[in-house]
Structure formats: C-alpha cells, structure tokens
C-alpha cells in the first residue's frame, strides 16, 4: 500500500519521475521544464532516436544531478489521438512493473503529460491509482528467505493540473486496486492455510474494518435451515463448513438489495469423482468467487455507496472421508428441490444452490453469483474472458457496462430452454448436477439459476480467469482478483439509478 501525495513543486525529489511522451508531442509545460533542466537532452535524445515514443516503450534517463529526481522514466504514448482508458491502463501497468523490477519506493507522475483529448485528469488519476496498485503486487512466498524484506513502493506523488480532481480519483483507483489485491491474497493462500474457518475469520476482519454486519452459520444452523446441498458437499471433510454472511446497508430501507454469492470451496479434490493428479494442486483457487465478492466488499466498505448489499459465501472443502458424498446420492437443497449427484466434482453448483436460496431469504432481490465453476469455460473462452449467463436483460447490461469500464472481459452464453431441460434429466430427482460434457458452462450456470427462482440474476464463471499461469504487466502469476472491480462497479452504478 502506498501513500498518495499531491505536490505543486517544481523540481521534486524522487527516485523516479514518470512522464508520457507522444509521437508528435504535444510538449506539456512540465516536459519543457524537465527538458530545460536536462539541458535539452530530452529532445536531443528523441531526435537521435534514442528515446522511443512507441506505445508502451520505456526509456530510462539518468539525470546525473541535473534534476533532484535520480531517474526519469519516459513512457511512449504512441499516437496521442488513439490513447484511451484501456490503452492507458496497459501503459501504466508497464510503468508499475518496471518500478517493481527496479525496487523503486518513491515515484512522481506528471499526470499532465498523459492528458489527451478524450481523457481528463480524473480518468488519468484513477487509472494511475488502480494500475500501480495492481502492477506492483507481490505474491507472499513461504521460503526461508522471504520477500517480506524486499522494498515496496511507498509513495506515489502526482504533479500536473486539476490536482483536486486528480487527488480523489487516484485514491478511488487505489481502493479498486487494493480490493483486487486483497482477493489475490486470499486466492493465493494454499488450502491448508485457508480453510473454511480461516475464510470466516478473514470475513470477520473485513467486517470489523468496515463496520459490516456479520453472521457466520455453523453446521448446526445449516442442519436446522435444511441446507442439504452445502452439507452434502462438506460431509466428506473434517473441516467444519461455514455459511458466511456480510451485510452492508447503504439505504434507510432494506428493500432493494443486491446479493453477491461467492463459491467458497477452499480446496476441490473432486470428492469421490476424484480429479486427476496433474493439476489438483491448483484447486486451492476454488474459492476465487468468495475472494471476488470479499474484494468487492472491501471497495464498497471504503466508498460507501447508497446501495444495500448482502454477501453470502457457502464455504467448504470438497475432499473425501468415510462420510463423503457419493455419485448417485440424492440430496435435498434448502429450497426443497432434490438433486441427483451424478458427479461429486460438480460441487460448486450444489453449495451455490443453498447460497442463492439463503441470499433470497435475507432479502436479496438481485442476485449475482461468482464461481470458479467449470473447466469447460476455459475450453470455450480461454483465460481472458469470464463466462456468464443470466435470466434478466437489465442486470446483464449493468454487468456488461461495469465490465467495459473496468476492462475485465465478460461474455454471456445463451440461456435457452434446451439447456435448462438438460438439467431435468435425472430419473429420480428434480435436478441432475452433471448432465454431461456438452455446453458444460451453460448448464452449470443455469443449474445455479434454478435457485434464483425468477429474481434477476447473473452468473459469472471465473474458472478460466481467476488464475494466471504466467505474470502479466498488471500482476504476477497466481490469483488475478478478477471480477472484484466489475462487481464493485456494478454495485456503485446502482447508486446512480
Ligand atoms: N472447481 C472446478 C472447476 C475448475 C476447473 C475451476 C478448472 C478452476 C479451473 C469445478 O468444481 C469442477 O470440478 N467442475 C467440473 C464439472 C463437471 C464434473 C460437470 C468440471 O469442470 O470438470
Ligand atoms: Zn469440482
Ligand atoms: Zn470446484
């Protein structure tokens, strides 16, 4: 976490100052001043083609005492006309990654040098706050020589115009970035260090930090409430299940309530329908949905919109002991529907079923569930787009609008009757939890949708996007914190209606 500072100073002292430079200028006043201090070297280097203005290329200029800052990073903007928010995100992520690589602790951005026609100081400040938080994030390691002692970025100063506007939006951007990093932290925790009880403890800490109402249901409560689907999955684990509930009340009345339901499987072995050994270790990320809704609540708790939100996280392990759920078992969900468990590895939809019913009972009249639900979504969309289904055009459009603002890819699959009919193919129960390989992500999503029972609902399958195998500019390999920002934005946009 870094401190944001606003300065009007001329020749500030920082490890690094960052300026953007477009192909054909314009040369902002601050660039002229820096060039002057550098005795014209900036322009000279450009003339000599030693300083690239190509989009995303960074040239480091050592100031050798001519400026108080030791180094200037000049980042190429390419054609100023083509620069938009998405492109600026990419550029700033590159800067952030370089800062991290160079172990810089104190940086100053000249935001006026990023100003182009269709972007104001507010937009730029937001992108800087958010993207620098994301791109300087580190995964906690457990090695003898830990990275805890490594130097971290501590100060981000801003120079340029409209500082008042820039100040607020940079902070807001940072809040978005930090909420995402919080989710990344949770996803990156191994299954032994984040059990359902640990997830409940984390939620408690979050609730205390922001003053949310918190309720954690224990196994006995679940039995009383008839949460047969969650209990069935947790039967095979020695770790007690938890149903985690957080409430944020931004309005006087608890009438209009958004329900965020996150899959909290802290480790998914597949159960008796055991997963293959090669990639099983990655299933510590199977609580990515829970992390996404908690990350979003971190943002909501800080920004305090006038919206009501209830979070419901069914949390359990999906492992095996002598009491484990068996293929062919018939279970009864909280809303009374029976389910034939054809495959114990399709456990996410089971626990979400009870999560959805419970969220509705708590007053949610809009439902958004988020889950690392299917391997099939990776086949369909790869690891760059979150797959979605919905029963409501308006809520779907709200998600798409928010996702376009946050630059997180979301693609909606069709919700058609033939898919819904595939769920009703059990000879002995109302629903079949694993109707087969065809349209696997759609049927999984629509299974969860059965428990919306007509309320506006969107399902987000983040199995492909919650984790990345290799580092990218906006974050290292591991948990991505995907959908934190889109969920938060969706909630914040509700305020404007
Ligand atoms: N947690 C998995 C889905 C998953 C796969 C998450 C890859 C992250 C990366 C889920 O519980 C699961 O195992 N789904 C099954 C469903 C099938 C049995 C119908 C799957 O996708 O194979
Ligand atoms: Zn599974
Ligand atoms: Zn799972």
Explain how this protein is built.
By secondary structure, the protein is an alpha/beta fold. The chain has two domains: 3-161, Leucine Aminopeptidase, subunit E, domain 1 (3-Layer(aba) Sandwich); 182-496, Aminopeptidase, CATH 3.40.630.10. It contains 15 helices and 20 strands. The chain has helices at residues 29-37, 41-47, 85-101, 121-135, 163-188, 196-210, 219-225, 228-234, 288-303, 348-361, 376-381, 393-406, 417-422, 440-449, 484-496; strands spanning 3-6, 16-22, 58-62, 71-78, 106-110, 155-159, 213-217, 242-249, 257-262, 264-268, 308-318, 330-332, 338-340, 366-371, 386-390, 410-412, 431-432, 457-461, 467-468, 478-479. The strands form four sheets. Strands 7, 8, 9, 10, 11, 14, 15, 16 and 18 form a nine-stranded mixed β-sheet that branches. The protein has a six-stranded mixed β-sheet with strand order 1-6-5-2-4-3, with helices on one face. Strands 12-13-17 form a three-stranded mixed β-sheet. Helix 9 (288-303) links the parallel strand 10 (264-268) and strand 11. Helix 5 packs antiparallel against helix 9 and helix 10 runs parallel beside helix 14 (440-449). The two termini are 33 Å apart. 52% of the residues are buried. Ligand BES binds at residues 268, 286, 343, 345-348, 372-376, 434, 440, 463.
CATH superfamily of the largest domain: Zn peptidases
Q: Report the sheet with the most strands, covering strand number, pairing sense and barrel closure.
A: 9 strands, mixed
DSSP helical segment count: 15
What fraction of residues sit in β-strands?
Answer: 15-25%
The CATH architecture of the largest domain comes to: 3-Layer(aba) Sandwich
- Mass-distribution shape: elongated
Estimate percent helicity: 25-40%
Radius of gyration: 24 Å
Structural class: alpha/beta
In the CATH scheme, the class of the largest domain would be Alpha Beta
Named CATH topology of the largest domain: Aminopeptidase
